[in-house]
Amino acid sequence: MEDIIISTLQRAMVAGTPLLLATTGEVICERSGILNLGVEGVMAMGAVTAFIVTITTGQPWLGVLVAIGAGMAISIIHAFASITLQANQVVSGLALTMLGLGLSGMIGKPYVGKPLSIKMDDWTIPYLSDIPYLGKILFTQSPFFYLAIFLALVAWFFLERTRLGIQIRSTGENPRATETQGVNVFRLRYLSVLIGGGFSALAGAHLSISYSKSWIEGMTAGRGWIAIALTIFALWNPGRAIWAAFLFGGIFVVQYLMQPLGISPNFLAMLPYLATLIILFLISLKDPRKLNAPAMLGEPYKRGER
Amino acid sequence: MITIKTTDRYNITAFRSFMTIILSLVAGLGVISIIFLMAGVNPLHAISEIFSGSFGSIYGFKETLTKAIPLILIGAGLTLAFRAKFWNIGAEGQLLMGAIFATWVGLTFGELLPPYFIVPLIFLAGFIGGGLWGIIPAILKIKYSINEVISTLMLNYICAELLTMLIVGPWKGKTRFGFPGTNNLPDSAILGLIPGSRIHYATLILAILCAIVLCVVIYKTRFGYEARVVGENPDAGKYAGINFLKTSLILMAISGGLAGLAGVGEVAGIHHYLGYPASVSSGYGFTAIIVAWLAKLNPLFTIISGIFFAGILVGGDAIQISLGLPAATVEIVNGTLLIFLIMGDYFLNHKITLQFSHT
Predict the structure, then answer these.
(1) CA–CA separation, A115 and B57 (whole Å)
(2) Domain ranges in chain B?
(3) Per-residue pLDDT tens for B243-253?
(4) What was the ipTM of the complex prediction?
């Protein structure tokens, strides 16, 4: 029993990792005022590029870098449409998701079902990994796990404590006032969308080269959309995103734990999506003024207009 | 020095609007050509295959019309929702829920009732199923301010799992030799086809009627006006005393209901039983988003844009076979065209002039 609990929690951390990465990226993006519904598609692009580069070169970290580059590159489409052309951000993000899912399916077709032989070793943190229970759950994990937590903390520090981060936040709250301070709103929003895209792709890379070690079309399975919901649940705070993502990782894993109990696997597969609705419901009971939503989220900014 | 100057354009003519759409589609096809080139396929050949596969032969055109039926139904419903800025991304789930309701009614009462009774009944059941699945996100949005993009999407996944649960479990048919799926619907519940095609004409007529009626609803009724105000100027709507909950519930019942009707057509017209979600609908709920957008959110125009995108689906199938391109190709075409359509809006709404000056 003890072993089952430990291994469940350990796997919850693994399942939560891509959610945390994508949520952190979306938090930064939305803080600048741009809603990016393309996460799912960018994640798929990240997964397929990381997989192809890794399987052909044998260099997983090169795969990660290329994936981040590809994620940023494809996100430019959303940035250009929603920032420069002031297009509807909902539709533009959806289009990005369609394109990302389609392109990844096309590029990845020859690689479907191929196993990845390159192993990414877990990082065992000296001394800490010897702590009973916690050592196995928190300190014997894939490098992505540590990276995700580290980046979430960096993102928190960046948004709350650095000049550039504060400028990004004020861009999402009041772009016109920010512009009068001599800040280039367009440039900051582009930057935020690109950072968000890089994070989504990194989440995808984790899925294909570390989590499942294979590529199949549609393997993101709605995780990008869940990350968008987690962004709300985390109240646009990367620090809160950490526990929100791992809580959800737990819900993904609990399916496998409950399967032997004779519950319908289809019902269990529903759980993450049901849970997403439930957390959004719980958040809605909060005072909306305490939600912290960026005031200008989703509103195009027109320069030189009052 | 060249500077780019943009000014808002206020006099948008129908002709300019039409030309913008055409140019956006052409530009989109240009980018798609580049993607085809990179995939090692001659783009001119591929694009002409797509359109000759769907519009170039009688057989192809019949298939195109068949696939246009769900796209027109769903697309027309989405124009209403999108006008109220209710981003219903859940038509896929609403279609499946309609299919589930229709299958239940068909299997339960099909043997007992004559066709002229059962066919309207399954359409009604499908409308109710899709409509109920559609009003859930409306309640969640208005009462609990839950973002409808996320809730409708989550409901898609939930409905797909629910359907699978039914067809592998309690509804599993004895005639399916152990494969998941319900029994075939009784003959009385099966829709008639235009001979030599798969066009279930009852649904086609229904789709065209719905598009026309919805056009009247949006432009000529108080409800349609209120739906537009909710989308364009919610503050004014509040002052004018528009009941947001009531308006959203009705428009999502209609939008979801029409998707449900599409589900009825797929089950009772094409498959004759309820199978896996991916076989009931090949992503019609998502493609219809582009159908609605291409129609400029006018339900009447979804008849044309629905046929156009049905053509891309059919042509996409054709080039999968003839050129060995993956199924995802259609998604690339759809996504790219949607991006260019929304980008085109900027050039429709703004006048862009280049100014040359000496420095």
Answers:
(1) 43
(2) 67-291
(3) 889 999 999 99
(4) 0.91
